[in-house]
Amino acid sequence: MKGLMSGTSSEFSKLIMKKKYIVLVILGAAVCFLRLGGTMLISALSQGEIVIKSSLVLSMLGFTTDILVPLIVFMAVTDLFASEIQEDSFKAALMRPLSRFKVMTSKVLAVFFLGAVTMLVMFAACLIIQLISGRGFVGAAQGLLIYCVDIIPVFALICMALFINMTAKGPTLSMLICIAVYIFFKYLNLYVSPLGQMIFTAYSQWHKILVGATLPFGALISNLGIWLGSVLILYTASYIMFERKDF
Amino acid sequence: MNVVEINNLTKLYKNGRGVRNVNFSVEQGDIMGLLGPNGSGKTTVMKAMLNLVNSSGSIRIFGLDLKDGFEEIMSKTGALIEAPAIYKDMSAQKNIELHVAPYGGDFKERIERALRMVHLYDYKNDKAGKFSLGMKQRLGLAIAFVTEPDFIILDEPVNGLDIEGVVEIREIIKRLNAERGVTFLISSHIASEIEKTCNKAAVMYEGEIISRTTVEDALRLHPSMEDYFLDVVKDKRGEVCI
Question: Which of A58, A170, B76, B128 is deepest in the core (most CB within 10 A)?
Answer without folding.
Answer: B128
